[in-house]
Amino acid sequence: MSSALVGVGASPAGAASWSPKTPPMTTPWTNQVPVDKPLPEYPRPQLTRSDWANLNGIWDFAVTGRDAGQPSSWPDQIRVPFVAESALSGIQRRITENDKLWYKRTFTVPSNWNGRRTVLNFGASDWQTTVWVNGTQVGAHKGGYDSFSYDITPQLNGGTNTIVVSVYDPTQTGGQAVGKQRINDVQPHSGGGIFYTAASGIWQTVWLEPVAAAHITRLDMTPNLGDSTLRVKVQADSASGRTARVTVSSGGTVVGTASGTVGSTVSVPVPNTHLWTPDDPFLYDVKAELLDGSAVTDSVGSYTGMRSIAIAKVDNVLRPVLNGKFVFQTGTLDQGYWPDGIYTAPTDAALKSDLQAHKDLGFNMVRKHIKVEPQRWFYWADKLGLLVWQDMPAMDTGKSPSSAARTQWEAEFHAIIDQHRSSPSLVMWVDQNEGWGQYDQARIANEVKAYDPTRLVDNMSGVNCCGSVDGGNGDVVDNHIYVGPGNTAPTATRAAVLGEFGGLGYKVPGHEWFPGGGFSYEDQPSIAALNNRFVGLIDGIRIGQLPAGLSASVYTEITDVENEANGLLTYDRQVVKVDTARVRAANQALINASKNPAPPVTLPTGGYKSLRVTTPGYTNKYLRHQDALAFTEVVDGNSSALLKNDATWKIVPGLANGNCYSFESRNYPGEYLRHRDFRVRREANDGSALYKADATWCAVAGTGGVRLTSANLPGSYLRHIKSEVWLATPGGGHDWDNPATFTEDTTWAVEAPWAP
User: Fold this and answer.
1) Which residues form the Glycoside hydrolase family 2 catalytic domain (predicted)?
2) Which of 225, 384, 215 has its CA nearest to residue 288?
3) Contact of 340 with 350, CB cutoff 8 Å
4) Residues with Cβ within 8 Å of residue 637, at least 6 apart in sequence
5) Which tens digit of pLDDT belongs to each residue from 222-245?
6) For helices 403-420 and 375-384, what crossing angle results, to 10°?
7) What's the rounded Cα separation, in Å, for the pair 337 and 571?
8) CA 32, CA 21: separation in Å to the nearest integer?
9) Concatenated DSSP letters for 564-604?
10) Is the Cα torsion angle 729, 731, 732, 733 positive or negative in sign?
11) With the CA atoms of 89, 94, 97 and 102 taken in that order, what torsion angle do they form, in degrees rounded to the nearest 10?
């Protein structure tokens, strides 16, 4: 849908001389951005109208002190909607808490809009935005991630109109939601860590739209698979008591229609429902109309996907279920930063590209991390078929938010939920992350669940990390483990997810934001090593963690970001670092394993057993402890009582995960088989979370026996080599990782105990 460009108004004086700045890195779309009318697509796909006017493009611009009034001169021009820190804006300067940004442009209202109201819409502006039309203030908004609009009809003059916008953005020095933004130099530099360049001012599309006096403002759409209906609440202005009619169609054929009072919920029948899934992201068309008697006074277009999301027991393990079925959610952490536009993708094709990269790599989920994207991003997720975990952007780290900051943060969270609650791809709200600006975790999780009961809620992503406090509620328990994947166990009330893991790094020469300055959680020496290590992590989840109860994992991350070099793609999106086909196959195998699980490998618990070596030539040897270390040794009927006791273990439910196992010494009760510094040993339980994880082993099928993978280092196995017992990793670089007879050496036969 293209905008009604005629009559919007000329570009500011001097715009012909405007030019972008040089970005630190060039994406494939950097040079495809029009000078005027960048991002020309209609910005609100779930509430569309045919008439509109895009105000993106060149505006007059000035920066003043934070307390200054409207400037008398406008020395610069800026390309809206790119932030002042970005090269694509043409400004590319550091903005601090002492600055205020000012924007100005003119427009005329198209003549065919006469008789209707004119609404001025902002997709998002960070952070405190004040708007004047023809010298009259029409509104003020606080919030960096939610859209807002003003009816400016009373201020219009019938000719050339002037908009002035001021924005104040203190970034982390204020108390508001900032996500990963920090006030830094806009040019590449060392440091920065996991935080990035700030994004100040208007960063999403600005547009005008004519509407009737009584007009639809929002559609809240909830699929109900139980009775094959779409529940729709039509929200509207100046339409009290009016009737709303909603029609659902497919390929131009009406499948259902229903009417009801504005503000009430109507149930539109959707017979023979075509379900929305990542494999088949089918979307229905939706039309909503306001009626005055039988006359249609307003009409909007939209779309929906019919799907459900819930938590349910699957084979006695609590799992997230999509349309009633468990499918493992494998995704990446997606920060949504760009070297040319910072917070704003250069084009709609660029915005789509990161989501398409997920699909190409076989992922079925994306965690949008500490940022909320424009509605077109959600449209592409809906259309391409990706499950979305949406973070609420955090306040600054290491601070206890003030009462005013909390009130603002929660109000903005509500607005974000309202603006995205109808997107079928969005399946979980992530309230807080690693304790950043944390407070009232349990209350907020309950409140979000009550406000949007149709989705899952994660009260804290990274409950095990960084001083975070688990609210103890919500639908999932969410660990962060680097490199991981690590051990996350489901509980009686929450499914187990891995909200972050990975962070494998490889710097591609010529594609670094600050050459030599990048970091990762584990540097890889080559592309081959990166591929092997990454696929090994995904395979480890499939083999060990999925059967042990893990239901979702989020790899860090889809692209490099500034000095973070742990992306699957470079920051400029010019290079895919990994083997796409191989990664896609690993992800598909993981997803398929969740849909068609192999019979679980179970061990008898509560009694004593001995573990025999299965490697040909050594099958008379057993796992035993000696001087607190684990070895293998020949055991037979003539062996000493001490050796027989040392080679006998009580199998109990896993100390860190009841779906796995721990092995208690026969003659040292309370001491268990655990790994420490890769060496396997017998040690007393000190009650720590680390000990319990190290002493927990998950059972995996093996030829002629069982393989035991570490609960907190999935993909690493209990292995004997030269009579010593180690935690070994396929493809690892240690002596005990030697590939010769690796599978045989990590397979154990569970036998009758030598010392019952």
Assistant:
1) 350-462
2) 215
3) no
4) none
5) 999 999 999 999 999 999 889 999
6) 50
7) 8
8) 14
9) B---SB-TTS--B-S-HHHHHHHHHHHHHHHHSPPPPP---
10) positive
11) -30
- 129-172 pLDDT, tens digit per residue, is 999 999 999 999 999 999 999 999 999 999 999 999 999 999 99
State CA 282 to chain mean position distance: 22
The SS3 assignment for 326 reads: strand
| pLDDT tens digits, 616-657 | 999 999 999 999 999 999 999 999 999 999 999 999 999 998
Torsion angles phi and psi, residue 540, rounded to 5:
-65, -40
Number of H helices, E strands in the chain: 9, 46
Q: Whole-angstrom Cα distance, residue 180 to residue 126?
A: 13
Tokens 């959680």 sit on residue = 521
584-597 per-position pLDDT tens digit: 999 999 999 999 98
Gap between the Cα atoms of 4 and 8, Å rounded? 8
Sign of CA dihedral 669, 674, 676, 680: positive
Place of tokens 């909607």: 81
* 643 three-class SS: helix
Phi–psi pair at 187, nearest 5 degrees: -90, 150
Tell me the residue type at 393: P
Q: Which residues pair with 82 in a beta bridge?
A: none
Q: Which residues pair with 292 in a beta bridge?
A: 295
Q: Is the dihedral of CA 525, 527, 532, 536 positive or negative?
A: positive
Q: Which two tokens stand for residue 748?
A: 């154990």
How crowded is residue 653: how many other Cβ atoms within 10 Å of its Cβ? 15
In our burial notation (b when 16+ CB lie closer than 10 A, e otherwise), range 375-386 reads bbbbbbbbbbbb
